[in-house]
Amino acid sequence: MHHLLWFLGHFPRHSFILWIASLGCLHTIDRLHAYQIITFSVCILYGLHVETHDYLFFQCLFSASVWGYY
After folding, report:
1. For the chain, how many structural domains are there in total?
2. Alpha-carbon span 18 to 7, nearest angstrom
3. Other residues' Cβ atoms within 10 Å of the Cβ of residue 21
4. Which of 1-5, 12-16, 23-27 has the highest mean pLDDT?
């Protein structure tokens, strides 16, 4: 996976975010809510489901349309 993230001509910010996402360590709303940094835990786009890593990337209607699955 290293060669997919850190290649010649990569964008450091994009590579870092993709690396953190691949490890499942993004600061999603459910994690921030668990640490009591924020008081709400629903998706800010639709407000129907708790925003987790899986929901954010695979189950949300907006992200599904971005990924082309919708």
Report:
1. 1
2. 13
3. 14
4. 23-27
